[in-house]
Amino acid sequence: MKFYRVSNGDNIDYAATLSGAKDIVKTADPTFRKLITVDEVEMATDKDSLLALLNDNGTRPDGTGIFLDSGRSWTGTARGGLASASGEAGDD
Question: How far apart are CA 12 and CA 27, in angstroms?
């Protein structure tokens, strides 16, 4: 399953859609929006991963985490939008 991790360095929130992540960025103080990063992550949904989530440790028996980075990232803009961290067009 795909999710979006929204981080400002101190707090991490998750959104189900990129639009939801953008809404989180918009609620931040405009002064700090550029410090926010949004990363697309895939959550493993196999039995071991769900069990790790239920047990609240986030680590599967093989030692890997339940979140896998997809490589797509954005940063917040001063106006509350998202800009691709990799410089790709069309990601906001």
Answer: 14
C-alpha separations of 14 from 4, 61, 63, 74 in Å: 6, 24, 22, 14
Backbone phi, psi, residue 33, to 5°: -60, -35
pLDDT in tens, 61-83: 666 666 667 778 898 998 988 99
Whether this prediction's pTM lies above 0.70 is answered by no
Cα angle: 73, vertex 79, 84; to 5 degrees: 20
**How far, in Å, CA of 79 to CA of 39, rounded?**
19
CA pair distance 56, 71, nearest whole angstrom: 25
Domain locations in the chain?
A: 2-84
Which helix (H) or strand (E) is 25 found in, with range?
helix 18-27
Nearest to residue 62, comparing CAs of 75, 77, 46? 46
